[in-house]
Input
Amino acid sequence: MEMIALGGVIGAGLFVGSGVVVKAAGPAAVISFALTGALVVLVMRMLGEMAAAYPAIGGFYEYNRLALGELAGFLTGWMYWYFWVIVVALEAVAGARLLNYWFPAVPPWMLTLGLVLTFTVLNLLSVRLWGEAEYWFASIKVAAILVFLCVGAACILGLWPQFGGGLANLTSHGGFMPRGIGPVLTGAVAATGFYFGAELVTVAAAESAVPEVTIARATQSVIARVLVFYVGSIFVVVTVLPWDSAGMAQPYVSTLQQLHIPGAPQIMNGVILTAVLSALNSGLFGSSRMLLALAGRGDAPGGLARLSSQGVPSRAILTGTVFGYCAVIMSYVSPEGVFAFLVNSYGTVAIFVYLLIAFAQLRLRARLERESPAQLRVRMWGYPYLTWLAILVMFGIVAAMAFIPDQRSSLVFGMASAGALLLAYGLRRRLPAG
Output
């Protein structure tokens, strides 16, 4: 379970997308990732508290429904499902592009289709096979970052051949914060999406043997390591590689090349492919389990709650993949139209989910302290002050998106998606009466 938690938060965004933040903020991108990472740590602690007290299929969908009502549960469940099915499409397309590095003669759409089919079958076979695959994917990613951190530390200390060491790159190209505080805060907004995925462990906890124990251990593992992996590796990148160099388009590959490591492109391409496949695998699991929970509560067609002879929600898995196939088709047919809308909306939707989680924690914590304090096996730090701080920061992120040109479309499309779900909820309320 710890590997699932860590694997969920270490995605392709760290290995590739982080370069965008560095190019905008300079070496101070370390601060951008630290700020966003601290927020995710707080949200994970909230989830750890609720999941240890109420382990359930659907995780925070159930917590939000219990604490905030049917509408909040409906929005949370469908927003999270939407988030993961878009991830399935995005990662399948990204995985195909990476595989083209080794198989240039194969059309990208065939590789994309092959990846989605492969992981659909894997998820349909059994929960155990999904867990095994995710464990090994996550292990490769974690091992790669640990090696990267160790090599980076040796370089900085002057212990690596052909590299002088030191911290000169942090200040020698216009200073630590070459473009001021603005891009640093903007970078924190952009980095928010890179951290999403750690919360998947609370959905997986319901299918573990001892959920109360495993969820507490897994959330603690993320809290202890996420900042080290993200902030530490970004620190290595901006120390070894000048922030304004062309190599920042592929920061981790370029860092290894700067250190004259043979086969650096092949090595990092393999690691990034692993991260992509892990996200694709997690996307199919997360979307199907959330749809299973929605169906169980009447927020989705009841037939989707049926389990196969292998004990997996096959109909929920296949429903998610159908949407994924449609999104993949749109990525080739309408990359600047429908697919652009999907890509620009799913990140904002995830922030909305985190906001609902924080409000749910405030309500459930008060209820637990009043009615059954023995269930508080894991406690949110500084309650309620740190929870309110996290809520204010998330509102600040959403507000900031309105003033950041690159983020404005994401906010608009995310709001449109949330509006569509509100209309769907209104329709759901009217259908039984009709």
Remarks:
- The chain has a mean pLDDT of 82.
- The first helix runs from residue 2 to 9.
- DSSP finds 16 helices and no strands in the chain.
- The CA atoms of residues 74 and 297 lie 9 Å apart.
